Amino acid sequence: MEKVFVKGVGIFPFTSFDQLSDYAIENPAIYTSVNAEIILNADDRMRKLINKNVGYCDGAGPLAALRSMGCEDAVKLAGCEFWLHLVKKFYRQKTFYLVGAKQEVIDNTITKLKREFKGIDIVGYRNGYILSPAEEQALLDDIEEKKPDFVFVAMGAPRQELLMEKIQKRHQCVSLGLGGSFDVYAGNVKRAPKWWINHNVEWLYRLLNDPQRISRQLVLLQFAWWILSGEFRQGTVTI
Fold first, then answer.
1. Do you find a cis peptide bond into 158, omega within 30 degrees of 0?
2. Mean pLDDT of 19-26
3. Full-model pTM
């Protein structure tokens, strides 16, 4: 599959959740949902981490870039939907480990997963507030011992990616960075209605509901300029 580089960040132009999930099963690695904010804010370490693993398109900006570079069949694949797609597809066969959010949120997430997916094998979980090297070491030891097929980490970039990098050194699995996905699943945060999502303006819905996000959303204007000017093009490489 051909990986496309947008401002130095490699993105695989997957065409469906099924294609992405099948690829993940065959290629255990860190899977990062790439949006405009990730692309523009990534430092060298973050770019290297994404580029040696798997970045997939999760944003209207990156999608426009991919399609303008010839990936006409590429689609946006939201991370907050991808992890649930994996659960639905593999919960009878695979094992899962979850890290992230506040204790109440992770508890509610686990309860809801067990209710909706009878028999799901969750081999471990904990909140995302890892406050000491000892706590981190205990988590890594537990994951290495239990060897889950999937590890979902909802802590926000780049903390979640840096933790997943440490996990991969101890245990090769499919690791997903999920940001605030557990809060959405547990019902603490409301996602945009389908119309906004389908028309690639979920960012606007978030801004209207939380005007304090304006400084973050200005990144989208900068990214739009790069697309219109063609400055974002960085070439492709076959993986």
1. yes
2. 98
3. 0.86
